[in-house]
Amino acid sequence: MAPPKKSKKSKKESRKLKKCRSISTVPVQPNAIDSEWWDSFRHRNSPGSSVSHDEAEEFKYFFRASRKTFDYICSLVREDLVSRPPSGLINIEGRLLSVEKQVAIALRRLASGESQVSVGAAFGVGQSTVSQVTWRFIESLEERAKQHLRWPDSGRMEVIKSRLEASFGLPNCCGAIDATHIIMTLPAVQTSDDWCDLENNYSMLLQGVVDHEMRFLDIVTGWPGGMSVSKLLKCSGFYKLCNGGERLNGNVRTLSGGLEIREYILGGIAYPLLPWLITPCESDDLTTPMSTFNAMHEAPRSLAVRAFSQLKGSWRILNKVMWRPDKRKLPSIILVCCLLHNIIIDNGDKLQPDVALSGHHDSGYGEQCCKQVDPLGRKLRENLAEALSAHGKQTSPSK
């Protein structure tokens, strides 16, 4: 007698059973996750290095964040990193990568700027895993950490103004602005004069406004390096909001003598002099008040310069030549580095002093000079210079 034919249902059940058997060889359980990644990474990378033997400092050296801040970053992205299929995210021992190890891989890639091959070797994973993990992390943090980069409300702005005045003597100052170039190589088919800057590098611009703690309050990026800094400003949403009276529109300070000082930020000579953006005085024959103003302008303005040196020094992927980046994805990488910069400040982390770039953040670039002068901006600058000069006379010791 011929054997009975299998029903369609039994064939389907058989396929299900085979499928279950095939995936059961890699159980997705907590004890199958690579949870001891730090000890393994430290063993691979620390011997013979110049890194501190203090484990906490060593951790911060590699990942720019303390353990506490690192755990906070993991908490922001955890849901996204565990909810997506883990295909390919397996180390050489066959264990699934923990969220912590994925975050560590992404942070090390951004902090070191080393190749995906080098970062992979440091963690015992392949190049493709580094690429996949880093991009998943960037996409997640870009969405989950928005609260760390936003324009201050009126209460917070009053704190910023108070701290800046206490430190530098400038009343009603809300921060400082600067811009930097992110240098890259581009395929021949993507090269153009727009992306080629004045130093004959292909680059993308990043503009940032910072507060008294060098925290980014506003950034704009994605624009080609061939633009001038003043044009970048005018293309930004920040410029439109300030011009429209939606930002830097808080309380006007009335100083002794009836001098009125509105809210403003400080910028270098590459920026136009505007009613809300104050630049240094430029003249071959500066008056004493103007010279005094320039001297007092420099220190708070340099907060933005130092912030970019810290940003590029901490997240060195931004300070190395980006190899053929996807120009649509690069702004997300830049934004996430700025978010990480702010997260570290918000969590009170102190970085090693040698992390920041030793030179200027735009080394090799000469500062452009913008000649645009708005009469209202000139008037505000004159009022500031007069107020600072009068204050200096009042506080100077008698002879």
Automatic annotation (TrEMBL):
Protein name listed in UniProt: DDE Tnp4 domain-containing protein
InterPro entries in the record: HARBI1-like, HARBI1_dom
Record bears the keyword Nuclease: yes
Sequence similarity: Belongs to the HARBI1 family.
Pfam family, one: DDE_Tnp_4
Organism: Ficus carica (Common fig)
Subcellular location: Nucleus
Main location: nucleus
PANTHER family linked: GH03217P-RELATED, PTHR22930
Cofactor(s), names only, from the UniProt record: a divalent metal cation
Domain DDE Tnp4: start-end pairs: 177-342
GO MF annotation: an example: nuclease activity
Gene Ontology CC: ESC/E(Z) complex; PRC1 complex
